[in-house]
């Protein structure tokens, strides 16, 4: 009985692949893994430099501001979804 179920599932899966192939038609779609070019990464690392104190402070302030705004927005949504239904 389990062999029949396995064969049925396999046939069903192959049927879905066939349907997809029919829908794609003659598009000749080839999907592969992205290529890895280590030279691009080395070039970026050569151009990168350590930020000075002022740049670091600016980046830190912007990051803290962004995290704070997202936290406030999350808290407002939480309050609206938990406390507001209790009122009505």
Automatic annotation (TrEMBL):
It is a single-pass membrane protein. Residues 1-21 are annotated as: Disordered. Keywords: Cell membrane, Membrane, Protein transport, Translocation, Transmembrane, Transmembrane helix, Transport. Gene3D superfamilies: Preprotein translocase SecE subunit. Its main location: membrane. The chain crosses the membrane at residues 62-81. It comes from the Archaea. It is found in: Cell membrane; Endomembrane system. It holds the Pfam family SecE. InterPro entries: Prot_translocase_SecE_dom_sf, Translocase_Sec61-g, Translocase_SecE/Sec61-g. Component of the Sec protein translocase complex. Heterotrimer consisting of SecY (alpha), SecG (beta) and SecE (gamma) subunits. The heterotrimers can form oligomers, although 1 heterotrimer is thought to be able to translocate proteins. Interacts with the ribosome. May interact with SecDF, and other proteins may be involved. HAMAP family: SecE. Belongs to the SecE/SEC61-gamma family. Essential subunit of the Sec protein translocation channel SecYEG. Clamps together the 2 halves of SecY. May contact the channel plug during translocation. This is Protein translocase subunit SecE. It comes from Candidatus Methanocrinis natronophilus. The lineage of its organism: Archaea, Methanobacteriati, Methanobacteriota, Stenosarchaea group, Methanomicrobia.
């Amino acid at each position: 009985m389990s062999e029949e179920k396995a064969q049925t599932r396999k046939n069903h899966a192959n049927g879905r692949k066939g349907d997809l192939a029919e829908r794609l038609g003659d598009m000749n779609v080839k999907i592969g893994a992205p290529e890895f070019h280590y030279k691009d990464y080395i070039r970026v690392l050569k151009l990168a430099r350590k930020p000075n104190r002022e740049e670091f402070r600016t980046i830190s302030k912007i990051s803290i501001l962004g995290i704070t705004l997202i936290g406030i927005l999350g808290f407002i949504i939480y309050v609206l979804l938990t406390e507001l239904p209790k009122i009505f």
